[in-house]
What we know:
Chain A has 406 residues and is α+β, with helices and mostly antiparallel strands. In chain A, 54% of the residues lie in helices and 18% in strands.
Amino acid sequence: MTKMRMKNKVLFLLSxxxxxxxxxxxxxxxxxVTIGIASxxxxxSLGYGLEQLVTNQIANFSAFTIIETSSSNARIVKMDQEAIxxxxxxxxxxxxGRVANLAGRIKKVESDSTAETVIIAGDANYWKxxxxxxxxxxxxxEKNEMMINKSVLNLINENSNDVIGKTLKLSAIIPAxxxxxxxxxxxTVEDIELKVSGLSNDEQSPIVYLDDxxxxxxxxxxxxxxxxxxxxxxxxxxxxxxxxxxxxxxxTDYIGDTISEINxxxxxxRVILAAFGLIALVVAALGxxxxxxxxxxxxxREVGLMKALGxxxxxxxKLFLVESLIxxxxxxxxxxxxxxxxxxxxxxxxRLLAVKSQVExxxxxxxxxxxxxxxxxxxIIVGFLTGLYPAKRAVKINALDALKYE
Amino acid sequence: MDESTKVITVKDVYKSYxxxxxxxxxxxxxxxxxxxxxxxxxxIYGSSGSGKSTILHxxxxxxxxxxxxxxxxxxxxxxxxDEERGILRxxxxxxxxxxxxxxxxxxxxxxxxxxxLIIGYPPKxxxxxxxxxxxxxxxxxxxxxxxxxxSGGEQQRIGLARAIINDPEIVxxxxxxxxxxTVSAKGIMDYLQFMNKRQGRTIVMVTHNLSYLALASxxxxxxxxxxxxxxxxEIQNMIKQRxx
Lengths: 406, 244
């Protein structure tokens, strides 16, 4: 006997016709799946959108190239000029910003009342990498210059209008950790007269920004930490550089670590959102199952007829499976569009509102295409799975019984 | 006629049913034997419950005997699988039922083309053949209607077109005129005769209507699940009663 195979095209048309012969039912069933898929896409896109919003706030573009490098034991793992020399030789490293954090006291030249302040002594690289900028005047470029913030101004009762160019007296307390040699103790550099070159509007805690060379001349030998900038932003360069720094014994921190922690929180959030959407899809799947079962019962005779006409079991199986696949595919694709478009419409509205009230525009919804395609495929898989049982039952139908079926 | 022209051979076929697991067996066929030869117009008749429809279902392979053998063209169909019997039906046997069964979502021509589509004909070829078959019985004007929109007689004619679309050697008809008025019934019988005489197909028909016996080249009388002689008292009584 020769092989006889029903053409897949014919099977598809047969399934399609049968589904479409109950138009309202088919539309309602597909709508159910559409709502399920659309709600998953919509909710999870919200999750992705919020995540992007937060991570964008935390990390701007250049922050991702910077590795914070510090030493957990300053005596053993030294952060001195020599170390900077060695680090800078690593090809992946573009620049190293160095900084020393220490405490100090500041006062007016003519006054005796002093104010406690934090001293940040860095180099030009550091100011750039840490994004420290003056709101008025300049960063300290010479050893005899400093930038102060508003908080310092308030403490010493200076006026912000005419402070730039004035001379103030600063005492810096250089702790032992920043000094070379084991016997070295804390030393204080008293009353250096420095010209105010710039002003920062920051009012949180009093900070004086100095050129690090000033302190190097006055007994400081080591730094508190480095900002290491990597030439390439890719994760491989970052990982290699971190490994290189770890080998020296440095402790490294990278903003990507924080981001991945945030990502974890948001993935959980997305899972929760997806679970809500999934509820809708489960209901839709039950609806599909119900439709297919009813369709099977209605067509028991037709199945009997097709078997009597010699249709193969596998073709009958396919017939019902294709029907549920059609529901899954249509529901998935339409749901995908509805979900994405709904999110984009809300984005547009939010953007218009933002423009109207002159605030920064944001996107609440973001749909990664891979995720979208994944969900649409998931719908097809759900369609496939819901079709399995009715298809199996259809195959088991006895032709003769089915023909007599009322 | 010599042995080689036998197309259907039913040999010692027994069939009994069990309605539930521990229920007693109900015998329906009790050793049926008959042969049908090529180009026969065979009529199986008998009273209700005589097993005539049941033996027909066995011949087309929709049921398997509890015991015994059935040959179609020397091939024992009782050893075939369900699906293999289905393929055999699709290729060799056309069937007409008392009630016409349709795939309701398909048009008339699509229903007629169905047996061809099932065995893998390209849709275009199947369509051409279906239209030709419908023209042959002057039903082409209904091609684009749904079968359920037609009358019983019209449906039965289309059923005949579907039965012979795959050019089967054997046409099996289970009370094809049972639900029809006399005019429609005559049309169907004429067409069955046309298939037999002109197209050379073997016809096996089950009927209540004994007036058709005159058309048959072979008659098989059944009673209580057995083939009985046409001359037997019961059959003679039956014939007399019907003819009055």
